[in-house]
Amino acid sequence: MAAGLGLPETSEKEEALMKKIRFSPLFFRRVHKWVGLILGIQFILWAVSGAMMATIDMEAMKARPDVSPNQIPAGDFVDPAEIADEQVTGFAVRSIGDRPIYEVSYDDGIRLFDARTGNAITVDPSFVRARAEEIAPARIKSITRMDRPNLEARDYEGAVWRVDFADAENSSAYFSAASGELLTMRGDTWRLWDFFWMLHNMDYLDRSSFNHPLIIIVAFGTLFLSGTGFYLLFKSFTKRDFSWIVRRKPPSKRVLANDD
Fold it and tell me: Hey, which residues does 165 pair with through a beta bridge?
């Protein structure tokens, strides 16, 4: 039949060999070995990263200045009606240091106004510098505007200002470019912890998800490794290994009393 169709003939011996390789413990042992090597590297990374995250001082990692809202100072404020219009979607009064401000929300963003004068406030480098000097005594090395947050400020959206300090932790503060609020502050301790966190959850891009394809593949690979490992363990036993269980003592001879 194969010759009539022009297909290469396969001997029974070759077919038997292919079937033996396909279904024999040797095949699973080879696949198990290579999958174990690949996943074994990740197992080591999980162990090392988990140990390092447990070792790092969490208090030092979370250290940040007190940014609790300041009490709004008393004084004569501009009537909000002079600033707000029909397009306003939100309005709030807060203070930055000893400066009361109006935070007016629109569909396209937030605008700030001085509550005493009604003048618009621009969140520019000078404004951000004044905010940074309020929260940290260290010398400011640089102030940079970012159109989108980097990995250190990945929990937030929109443009931000980054302020780098010349302190022992090489701290960086992130301010909202819209509202001027302090979003977060990061230091070298947090960066070290975040590196090991990246190795642990295997999210090398965003460092925030446990549901990405790579870790799902590794999870199924681990399941395959466990299944083939159990199969090879079962195939490694022989009847001789269980002989001590089924071995029985020879029946004892009973002497029957002759009543005759």
Answer: 140
